[in-house]
Known about the structure:
alpha+beta; Trna Endonuclease, Chain: A, domain 1; three-stranded mixed beta sheet; two-stranded antiparallel ribbon; 4 helices; globular
Amino acid sequence: MINSKQKGAAGERESVRLCKSEGFDCHRTAQYCGNAPEGSADIVGLPLIHVEVKRNEHLNIDDALAQSTRDSEKTDHGIPIVLHRKNNTKWKVTMDAHDWFKLYREWEAGQEK
């Protein structure tokens, strides 16, 4: 049986592979920086995004997003997101709707009209 710390580390490694498959050079914070300070993002390499990774069958998404928000305010001030999945499902991104609209406006502004 895998303990929660091992499962969390495995989820972080898996999420790094996902980011790399999408063309982003990401790393686990603990691996990249040694012992990561409390409040730091779980993975780094997505500029201006604060990533909290959760690999959990019974995730309280509100608590996870609140943790990401608190941690982003302490450290990098990036847009807080939760990258999460359950067993046998695809990865999902959850974020505050206001932050999503900020990103969407930026994307839309860069599009040809």
